Amino acid sequence: MIRKSTLKKLAKEHGTPLFVVDHEQLRRNYAEFKKYLPRVQAYYAVKANALPEIVKTLFDVGASFDVASMPEFRIVHENIKHMRDRDRQDWIWDKIIYANPIKATETLEELDPYKPLVTYDNYEEIKKIKKHAPHAGLALRIKVPNTGAMVELSSKFGAPPGEAVDLILAAEEAGLMVEGLSFHVGSQTTNFENYVQAINLAANIFKEADERGYKRMFLLDIGGGFPAPYDANVQPFRVLAKKINAELTRLFPREIQILAEPGRFLVATACTLVAKVIGKADRDGKRCYYINDGVYHTFSGVIFDHCKYRLKALKEGPTRICAVFGPTCDALDTVSLAEELPDLDLDDLVYSKNIGAYSHASSTYFNGFPPAQVVHVNQT
Length: 380
Ligand SMILES: *Cc1c(COP(=O)(O)O)cnc(C)c1O
Known about the structure:
Bound molecules: pyridoxal-5'-phosphate
Strand content: 15-25%
Shape: elongated
CATH architecture of the largest domain: Alpha-Beta Barrel
Number of domains: 2
Radius of gyration: 22 Å
Helix content: 25-40%
Distance between the termini: 17 Å
CATH superfamily of the largest domain: Alanine racemase
CATH topology of the largest domain: TIM Barrel
């Protein structure tokens, strides 16, 4: 937990807007994940926050990585290269999964020499992989219920479970090797039954594949979706982990490798944004503050991630309901229409905690305002 006095000091030293990454918290989040899901190897989903320093810290504590584009692949590859010597030839795919079910042919060609592990969910992709990345191993992405997730992720990707084994056999027929299944229950899933249902669906597909003569499945990737504790309504991670462990133990023998792709859970609570008040007006009886970061920048999650961030002031005092807007000229650039803030003056600092996931990663340069500067604390 970064103290207010530290935020103030950092803002003074570096200016604002400032995106503060706490590496101690990253390590704590990873440790919590491993403590409660000891059987599961965590592949950090780089799209949640692709800062190389974050990749490095998570790698150092033992994480693997889920990438979905060549730039993400390169960020990870560059930062974990140094372990090449101490590992086998195919070291890299214990450390990376390319988890985008749709891959451009150029991407497949670039990946092929690395003998990648990639996901797929349709017949056209089998043809493409056969032609452009014949050395890839495959995981079939299946469609699973996303009920109650903050961000739905099953309308775009995922084979219907009823077609799964046909798709596995088709890949085998094409001379490719299907190693297992993957799914995503939806991001910020607070309905833990999604995981229970998805693991059960996957177990049924393993069984059907076996009955139809396909005996080479050895991995299950339970995806991301593990919720960050944004508010008190989110049940503790250990409660979810207990349900997941029970299903895995019941349905998947020890020799099946279990992977997960946590993004938000590992980074959300590790970052804090500090911004300053650059304008102030009373409109229709409501106090409005304009700050130097907004939805085109670190608060992009307000739009893309359906996320609400609480804003607080460094200054104390009696609060009232205010609107907070970003610096661009677009009315969409509204951080919040109802924040409890004390009376603030120009240059006063505000901050938002738990803003590490899907925030800085989707910052733009819209209207000429650049993304927030990044500062790292508690790096080793
Ligand atoms: C976005 C994504 C993740 C990460 O999801 P979180 O909800 O942030 O944990 C994992 N896997 C895939 C395939 C994704 O697209």
